[in-house]
Write a structure and sequence with these properties.
Layout (H helix, E strand, L loop, with lengths): L15 H7 L3 H15 L21 H6 L1 H9 L14 H9 L1 H8 L5 E4 L2 E4 L1
Antiparallel strand pairs: 1-2
């Protein structure tokens, strides 16, 4: 599994906050802050748009670091991703992500990058 797959199965490398951080792209930070502020009806500023990935060491957005229930649950359960959790198939916490992004479930089930899921544990094939 790629290191940049988030606990929920989303690909952090496609996230605008991650891309703005890695590329030090201030214009992308500004566009992302404006978009996220409108979508979330929250005061999100360009300086809030810094993230090196949900599972990576380093800076994260305030939401990813402190408010994301999925990340907090995965850290508490000490799983690499929700794909390792025995409750994945009926989890309401990650369910909304999976319902709206079919790639997330594929990432969690390990169907890409040479991995398979056996007993909800990922092993290289």
């Amino acid at each position: 599994m790629k290191d940049m797959i988030a606990y929920c199965g989303l690909d952090c490398e496609t996230c605008d906050a991650y891309r703005a951080t890695i590329n030090d792209d201030q214009a992308l930070r500004e566009r992302t802050a404006k978009k996220w502020a409108e979508l979330n009806n929250a005061p999100i500023l360009p300086e809030h748009i810094n993230c090196e990935g949900c599972r990576a060491d380093g800076v994260k957005t305030v939401y990813c670091d402190s408010l994301c229930g999925i990340r907090q649950c995965a850290l508490e359960k000490r799983v690499t991703t929700c794909g390792e959790c025995s409750e994945l198939n009926h989890c309401q916490t990650v369910g909304a992500i999976i319902a709206n992004n079919s790639d997330a479930l594929h990432h969690l089930k390990g169907s890409q990058d040479g991995f398979t899921t056996e007993n909800n544990r990922q092993t290289e094939i």
